[in-house]
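SECTION: protein entry
WANTED: fold as tokens:
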Amino acid sequence: MYIHHCGVWGGASRSLFQAVKQIQRKSVNPFLICPYGNVNEITKSLKIPTINVLGISQFANQKLGDYFGHRWLLLLRETFFIPFSFYALIIAKIKWGRKIDLIHVNEYSLIFIGIITKYLFRKPLVIHVRSIQATEHVLRCWFLDLLAKLFAVSVIAIDQAVANSLSNSVVTTVIHNGETPKDTIKTGVKTAAAHEITFGIVANFLAFKGIYEFVEAAKACVREKGVSNAKFMIFGDNHRQQKGFKAFLFRKLGFLSDVKKDIINYIEKENLIEFIELKGFVADIKDIYGRFDVLCFPSHLNAVGRPVFEAAFFGKPSIVAFRDRSEDEGIIHQSTGLIIREKDPGDLADAMLYFIRNPHSANKMGIAAKKLAENKFNIEKNAEKLLKIYQQIK
């Protein structure tokens, strides 16, 4: 039984269901608990029995989910979700109890719910860690890592950087997220023929995704550098549509902002409508990565996200932001893409200009990126690794 923390279709959801889709073919019968959201469209297509709930209580310790200032009030939300979480677990126990052999929570923030589920169902617990943890909080990390060590039979990290953010006492298996190669098409940078290069960002409208930096860099290219042969595309939408008093309160506390509205206003103010296109949410990756030449991933994650290797499967290089220029398994600087400084639209604009002026380098890097993706991010191979963990536990 999988416990997933988010009902919105995004990177974590896509990664989970890509793996589930593969292991379903190997006589694994998945069951799911997750919040309401458009993820249900995927669960229905995969015929996964699902229990939806208003929210699942979490305790975030990742870098971008850290508690500070007013953000400590988010614990009130998590407390509010506790009875809903328990309700979902009880219903799952009644409906599926005898069918469940294993509990798999899809993020480290679900560790407390995972432990409760383990004892309610009397089944082993697997924890999937998808985010780099806030290692500066030594006591908090020590406590969470101790829980993982004591109660989980297996801890899976999506890459080595995430694994390194856990203590050495936690035995971790690295299994990369993945994509199905046959679901992609062979494409390359079209600049040589069209004399125009297109940059794309694939992200929900959240500040930490680097959306603001993307449009500022586009402006720098067009208005300050005089670039006329480039286009910029944004694939995504507001993370959640919230209205009423709850939305008003969250905005006042700084937890919620209409990033999409900000971006639209900026594009209109700077007269960039003919250069920047908002494509909205697109579910099929074939309809995304065939439309642009270079992926921009200027997030504040200090890590490579799922769009980077998705783009690579289509032969597209990436521009990825890091807090420090440490090497990452998902990108090789000046080989499969370019690494830039985090929260630096000027550095992003310079990287864009490099590809505009050197389209053949973009083609070369795209070929290298595709080879790297096929080696590390093939979901068929990575799902097989996950299945072996399940088989060893059972």
Notes: Residues 2-178+378-393 form a domain with the Rossmann fold fold (CATH 3.40.50.2000).
